[in-house]
């Protein structure tokens, strides 16, 4: 099969020929129809995650068809349309049995611990736990954005922050997960405020439902507080000391902050404010397969992930883009079609 692969951190990403995977017990092999290019892939390639070993096939968001199943798989058959979250739970621990596979202590992640989805085929372990049936109304390209960015934003806002209709939510960073958060917040009837340094990203956020657009810079916090009086919820989709602090300081008393942007080192936080104002600081790490029906329900009600897909590229272009800073992808989500050269 054709796949993207790098053999050293920060090194060349190449299109190579690799053996097609064969499913073991409990596993399924997916013929990948679409795979999202995500900032997390760049972090892995750059060597920021010690769970990654080389050589590695990147990619952790995919949708496609079940190509083969191993012994013991009961819920899936060849030809089923499927997607999967980027965290694959073991399927047997207490966390997985409770529907919390996203924090499984034995989790694996394609593109990080295991070969990833930027390939013609990928293996999903514990398929009965981790695969998600894909409705015919959701295209493969749109579904490729669900496994990481939409799923992460959905769980962060609904199950971690418990965002309610009419509440102000500040989203720092208008990349894939930030724009997904804007769309989900708008669909839930909340009032999204978006902060970013890119005029193009802010414009796209406005088209997707953001009510207030704030250019990142020295006056951003004052502008947010002036409009909202302090947000009920804040979400940092970037992952830096400055963006996390901005998100937290934008909250009103007893507000809720959710950190989803990956950090390369733990940043200092304004803990005096956290204590004095009784702020809640929450982490959010993807979403388990069992939680997808609520996201699909929003899609049935009009949420359209396809609006975020700005480009579909082939293998060679994806290999080039993998080595570029995340901003080089531009606003929206870029998707790899592994069947294209």
From TrEMBL:
<keyword id="KW-1133">Transmembrane helix</keyword>
<dbReference type="InterPro" id="IPR011032">
    <property type="entry name" value="GroES-like_sf"/>
</dbReference>
<keyword id="KW-0472">Membrane</keyword>
<feature type="transmembrane region" description="Helical">
    <location>
        <begin position="168"/>
        <end position="190"/>
    </location>
</feature>
<keyword id="KW-0560">Oxidoreductase</keyword>
<dbReference type="InterPro" id="IPR002328">
    <property type="entry name" value="ADH_Zn_CS"/>
</dbReference>
<dbReference type="Pfam" id="PF08240">
    <property type="entry name" value="ADH_N"/>
</dbReference>
<dbReference type="Pfam" id="PF00107">
    <property type="entry name" value="ADH_zinc_N"/>
</dbReference>
<dbReference type="InterPro" id="IPR050129">
    <property type="entry name" value="Zn_alcohol_dh"/>
</dbReference>
<dbReference type="InterPro" id="IPR013149">
    <property type="entry name" value="ADH-like_C"/>
</dbReference>
<dbReference type="GO" id="GO:0016491">
    <property type="term" value="F:oxidoreductase activity"/>
</dbReference>
<dbReference type="InterPro" id="IPR013154">
    <property type="entry name" value="ADH-like_N"/>
</dbReference>
<dbReference type="InterPro" id="IPR036291">
    <property type="entry name" value="NAD(P)-bd_dom_sf"/>
</dbReference>
<feature type="domain" description="Enoyl reductase (ER)">
    <location>
        <begin position="10"/>
        <end position="336"/>
    </location>
</feature>
<dbReference type="GO" id="GO:0008270">
    <property type="term" value="F:zinc ion binding"/>
</dbReference>
<protein>
    <submittedName>
        <fullName>Alcohol dehydrogenase</fullName>
    </submittedName>
</protein>
<keyword id="KW-0862">Zinc</keyword>
<keyword id="KW-0812">Transmembrane</keyword>
<comment type="similarity">
    <text>Belongs to the zinc-containing alcohol dehydrogenase family.</text>
</comment>
<keyword id="KW-0479">Metal-binding</keyword>
<dbReference type="InterPro" id="IPR020843">
    <property type="entry name" value="ER"/>
</dbReference>
């Amino acid at each position: 099969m054709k796949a993207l692969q790098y053999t050293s951190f920060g090194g060349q990403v190449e299109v190579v020929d690799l053996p097609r995977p064969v499913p073991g017990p409990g596993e399924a092999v997916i013929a990948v129809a679409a795979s999202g290019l995500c900032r997390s892939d760049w972090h892995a390639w750059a060597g920021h995650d010690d769970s990654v070993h080389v050589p590695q096939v990147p990619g952790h968001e995919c949708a496609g068809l079940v190509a083969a199943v191993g012994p013991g798989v009961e819920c899936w058959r060849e030809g089923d349309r499927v997607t999967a979250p980027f965290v694959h739970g073991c399927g047997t621990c207490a966390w997985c049995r409770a529907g919390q596979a996203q924090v499984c202590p034995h989790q694996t992640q394609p593109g990080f611990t295991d070969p990833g989805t930027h390939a013609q085929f990928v293996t999903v372990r514990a398929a009965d736990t981790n695969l998600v049936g894909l409705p015919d109304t959701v295209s493969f390209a749109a579904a490729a954005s669900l496994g990481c960015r939409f799923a992460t934003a959905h769980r962060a806002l609904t199950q971690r922050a418990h965002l309610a209709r009419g509440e102000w939510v500040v989203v720092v960073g208008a990349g894939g997960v930030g724009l997904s958060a804007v769309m989900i917040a708008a669909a839930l009837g909340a009032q999204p405020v978006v902060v970013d340094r890119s005029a193009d990203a802010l414009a796209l956020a406005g088209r997707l439902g953001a009510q207030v657009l704030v250019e990142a810079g020295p006056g951003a916090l004052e502008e947010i507080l002036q409009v909202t009086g302090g947000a009920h919820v804040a979400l940092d989709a970037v992952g830096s000391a400055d963006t996390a602090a901005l998100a937290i300081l934008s909250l009103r008393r007893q507000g809720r902050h959710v950190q989803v942007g990956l950090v390369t080192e733990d940043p200092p936080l304004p803990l005096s404010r956290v204590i004095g104002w009784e702020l809640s600081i929450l982490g959010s790490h993807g979403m388990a397969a069992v939680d997808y029906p609520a996201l699909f329900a929003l899609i049935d009600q009009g949420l359209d992930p396809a609006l975020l897909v700005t480009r579909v590229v082939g293998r060679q272009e994806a290999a080039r883009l993998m080595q570029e800073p995340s901003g080089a992808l531009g606003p929206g989500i870029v998707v790899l079609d592994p069947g294209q050269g």
